[in-house]
Amino acid sequence: MRTVKSYFSGTIFFRNLKRYWPIWSLYTLALGIFVVVTLLPIFSYGRSHYYDSTAYYSMRELLLEEGLIAGRIMNLVFGAVSALAVFSFLYDFKQTQMIHNLPTKREGQFFAAFASGLTWLIGANLIAFLLALVMELSAGYFEISWLLAFFGTLCANSICFFGIATLCALLVGNKGGMLLLYGIVNFGAIVVEALAAWATSFFVFGAAGLWDEPVLAPLSPIVQLFYVYDNLYESGRFLPERMIPWLLIYAVAGLLLAALALLLYRRRHLESASELIAVKPLRPIFRYAMAFLASSLLCIFLLGLVFEYEYLGTFMPFLLCLLAGGFIGYFGIEMLIRKTTRVFKKSWKGFCVYAGVMLALMLALQFDVFGIERYRPEPDQITTITVGIGYYERERTTFADPESIRVLRDWHGDVIAGKKRLKGDNYGDLITLTYDLNGRTVTRKYYLGSISDMIQEPLLSEMLDILDAPDAILQRHTFQREYTERNAQENYIIFPYGDNYPSEFNLTSAEAVRLYYEGILPDMQSGRIGTILSEFYPYRAYDASGNECHITLYLSEIVQGKEHREYVSLNLQPDSVNTMAVLKDLGILP
Amino acid sequence: MSLQVEVRDLVKSFDTVRALDGFQMTVPAGTVYGLVGPNGAGKTTLIRHLTGVYRQDAGTVQIGGERVYENPALKERVICIPDELYFFLQANVRDMMRFYRSVYPRFDSTHFEKLAELFRLDMKRPVRKFSKGMQKQVAFWLAMSLRPELLILDEPVDGLDPVMRRQVWGVISNDVAERGTTVLVSSHNLRELEDVCNYVGIMHKGKLLLERSLRDMRGAVQKLQILLPEGGALPESLEVLHRGAMGRVQSLIVRGSAEEIAEKVAGASPIYFELLPMSLEEIFIYELGGADHAIGEIIL
Predict the structure, then answer these.
(1) Cβ contacts (< 8 Å) between A9 and chain B: which residues?
(2) What interface predicted TM-score (ipTM) does this complex get?
(3) Residue A147, φ and ψ in degrees, nearest 5
(4) pTM for this one?
């Protein structure tokens, strides 16, 4: 006989709410503290304060902006803890038996547990929303749509992470296994990709940049949401709506994973209580994942930290670390799964498969079987090439004209052909080439020893010529905004002169605007400041006595209550005549 | 008001261990059925199938003609006291009572209050702080208040003192008499079940070796002492399972009813002949003929 009661146990639902109150309270408290701390400044910035005109906008943005981060991290933690609590009856056989003796279908137990966990998370989100509402009303600021966006963000995160945690909870048989699996699900894909790219970078010349745009990030919500968050500002405007599709996707994914968890639960063998992995087909995946993780960690620890990168690019030490780490990870997890240390006889074949795959991969990388090292896009495929110099790639210049593309592509071919001659260690100068192939991006990064030592290389010299053309310099260093005496704010210049200690000079708006428009900009237009070599080797610049002279000019403007700051950071060259003239006129240079 | 249990060809394996291997069992409605077997025979595994906790690999488990797995309506009528009890953290007897009352519509609060006089436990004290025996009493108290039609007990009186054992069995017997409740009791000790069961099944290595009503069993094997005249011989038609002698007095275990045996023996004109009462242990020993030395564990 099917009844509503069979599919939802109100008793278990309310029992869970009551039983796990410390967890819910902790989450509510954490959210409450977050709201109070974030919104407290609205009481400090009174209407007479100079910030008054912007406080209203800032506060509503701040709550949402901070909420996007805090909500994500808190739900990552509390989603797991809640799922662990409400599904804990699956991990202790005495409790498993007691609950499953009850006259309730498994759907009833699942929905009661899932609903109780989610109810409290969303209830806490609601309390945080109401608290924020009260605080904003008290301070005289109020806009419901922003607060609802804040509440919606928290709820989407709750559904997403609680859904993921629910699936993890149903796949394992004990709490340790659940936390381990939850970690793997949330970070596994991105860690595997990062580590694979990291290892590849040491063996494949030019592959150092493979992980700049991780393709597996969407499989890791916590990481992907951070990537999205980083792109919420454009031209100084906060665009939270960009987060909405991802939040919706992950909330729906959370619900779908919870539905999958229900299907698994219906088929679950309850005797798996207390076992590490409850679903048998998942065990090999778990073994190999842990083997790879242990391999990677051992490589990082032993080769990266103990031997300080000395053997990272060498075949045998790397392979040995991979195999030793894999051995520890594979048999370690096997011991936990089988609950015995006598696992070698039964599991050695599985480890041999892993060792074989690792060996094959290492050989493939060493001999460039995948053709990553040799690959150079064809000219007709290329839309643009962006060249980045240095580790942080601040000096990126994009070229779309066929002649520049030809020069850069030829240089790329020269680097590939001259690998043995050119390849430096990972402390050498870094040149990055990013090809845009009609929307698809291919990146190669080359550590090339010292560029200054290679300046006589004909193709490098030709490439530097196009990088130091005035148009290229302007592309790298021109301010995005148009500044005038009226809109420029908070201007200053950091100016290390003659020694390593920076001096800071506050400039008036007129002085800062003059320095940029009468000094720096004309010099850039003439190719007399901002050249690649001057950026790399400042000691070659400024004066004959070898004095380094580096300037960083900050300019900012407030638009719609938000400050937008830009800076230009350059080394003075001996021929930067316009800049030096203005600096002398302002009394900064002697 | 009572349920029959039918188990057919039940198979359950855990990795490489076959815990139940084509198990067959019939528990008639309204009987008290003792399931006996040594440790590891598969009793608890069977019980977990009967309560719908485990899903079988093969075979059928039916109670009252219905499949028990994922059948909440049936599970309202079937109550099990497992070997390992679980009570919520910090919950006292009344909390547990409220929980079961809200889950089981058949919960009888009046009966619960009535049983309180028998068990005399502190209702405000967390159940987990009780001794094992007291926790067992709480389990009985709650189980009997649920007014089951099938009561399944896994090693039920472990931890109970002799007085409480008698009282608990008294409550169960009353329930059987008044409401016709079917009771399935598992134990590794046959002696414990002898006085309360009217059906017994012996289980070993995942199979049921034997299943009989006690009445049939007692009627089917007899123990007798006989002194025959010089040159006298036992009738050949007697099916002797065991033979012993002290002097000229022979002790025999013979298959057959008392009347049948007396009739056959009378033909040999014995000087002395007496039928002696047999314990259930003895009957099983001779019936099973030492199927395995482990059988001895459940009897001796």
Answers:
(1) 103
(2) 0.85
(3) -65, -40
(4) 0.78
